[in-house]
Amino acid sequence: MKESAHPPAPVLCGLGTWLPPHVVTNDDLSQELDTCDEWIRSRTGIGRRHVVQPGVATSNLAVEAGRRALKSAGMETVDAVIVATTTPDRQCPATAPLVASELGLGTVPAFDVGAVCTGFLYALATAAGFLATGSARTVMVIGADTYSSILDPTDRSTRAIFGDGAGAVVLRPGRTNEPGALGRVELASDGRGSDLIMVPSGGSRDPIRAETADRADPYFRMEGKKVFRNAVERMAEASLAVAERFGWGVDDIDLLVAHQANIRIMHAVADRLALPRSRCHVHLDRVGNTAAASIPLALADAAVAGSLRPGDRVVTTAFGGGLTWGAAALRWPDICPA
Ligand code: UT7
Fold first, then answer.
1. Structural contact between residues 3 and 51, judged by C-beta atoms closer than 8 angstroms
2. Other beta carbons less than 10 A from residue 71's beta carbon
């Protein structure tokens, strides 16, 4: 048998999403915290977010999105499941095996990827490796987060931003030039900024024990301004790199789907690239920053709204804790998000 010179390209062939039904508006938040709709909208672009009810965990959101991704792909099963999340159901074990079982996928390989808001792109690259080596014929990648479980109820700066949700894609091997084919995913990290976004206590650095619980900080903390500056620079660099690798100039990019952290960040990235802001998809006004779920949710929103049509050239990019960042480019496939 003749061996192919090129490994198969990972092709996106299904997309499903899930948002918990409970909506928290900016006005709702202003009933509890010293904030207001005007501040949140003008500083972040966010109008509302979805939040889980007590007892609902990340795996529940991931399963709903995963089920819809299978439907969108017209498949009943996949060979592997990767869940990108910062808010697993439990610190141990990973959430993906439970998700795979709940989806009825039997004993397929399943594991989590932790790269905070860049997790979905890291998981895509990992899935591409499974396909390239033939370790799996189809892989489901789910970005799912329940940030409401780690936010400080008294912190207006983080509670205004984050929402819960999940988005899932199915990848299969295909040809490098077919719609949906992903090129090399651009990924990077810089651990020197690891304390800019963190949950200080609860890990091995500062375990929460009964005798020290009163001084533990189990909540998500972010140095917003420093993160902002880094996010703009890094997402712009990574977006340019993946576009160039596809042989695209900035004018060729039909839609930029950036991690939905802050509309000012997304517009600054577009400005840096000299891409019209109108080609930067905005979804955070309705869902906030959904962390690892942000990119698949925004892709689905763009496709359903008709802003992303089959054949369109799309660049997607993210930045998050770690610090981590990355980007991926593809021609949009002819799929119906579910
Ligand atoms: O997803 C991972 C990546 N994350 C990001 O990319 C997030 C990046 N950072 C940001 O989006 C912005 O930095 C924030 C939205 C987090 C904050 O906006 P900012 O314009 O950088 O505000 P700031 O943190 O400098 O705060 C300005 C003021 C402060 O008051 P003082 O100290 O000037 O009196 C804050 O206490 O705004 C205050 N503030 C608020 N006021 C009303 C912060 N949050 C709120 C709020 N409502 N929700």
1. no
2. 16
List, for residues 192-244, the tens digit of each pLDDT value: 999 999 999 999 999 999 998 889 999 999 999 999 999 999 999 999 999 99
* Structural domains present in the chain: 9-174 (3.40.47.10), 186-331 (3.40.47.10)
Give backbone dihedrals phi and psi of 187, rounded to 5 degrees, phi first. Answer: -135, 150
Can 117 be counted among the known catalytic residues?
Answer: yes
93 cis-preceded (ω within 30 degrees of 0): yes
Find the range with the poorest average confidence among 87-96, 177-186, 231-240, 269-278.
177-186
pLDDT tens profile 178-204 = 999 998 899 999 999 999 999 999 999
Whether 13 sits among the annotated catalytic residues: the reply is no
Q: Which two tokens stand for residue 331?
A: 């021609």
DSSP 17: E
Residue 86 CA, ligand 1 centroid: distance in Å: 21
Q: Which two tokens stand for residue 283?
A: 């979804």
Closest CA to 24 of 33, 13, 12: 33
Look up residue 4 and give its two tokens.
């192919």
Preceding omega of 12 cis (within 30 degrees of 0)? no
The residue annotated as part of the active site, out of 50, 259, 281, 283, is 259
Atom 38 in ligand 1: which residue has the minimum CA distance?
157
Q: How far from 313 is each of 13, 288, 336, CA to CA, in Å?
A: 16, 25, 17
What's the CA gap between 338 and 66, in Å, rounded? 10
Note whether 202 and 248 are within 8 A (CB).
Answer: no
Nearest atom, ligand 1, residue 264 CA: 11
Cα of 9 to ligand 1 centre, how many Å? 41
Residues with CB under 6 A from ligand 1: 35, 39-40, 43-44, 117, 156-157, 160-161, 224-225, 227-228, 231, 261-262, 265, 289, 319-320
Q: Do residues 245 and 268 lie in contact, with contact meaning Cβ atoms separated by under 8 Å?
A: no
Give catalytic status of residue 283 as yes or no: no
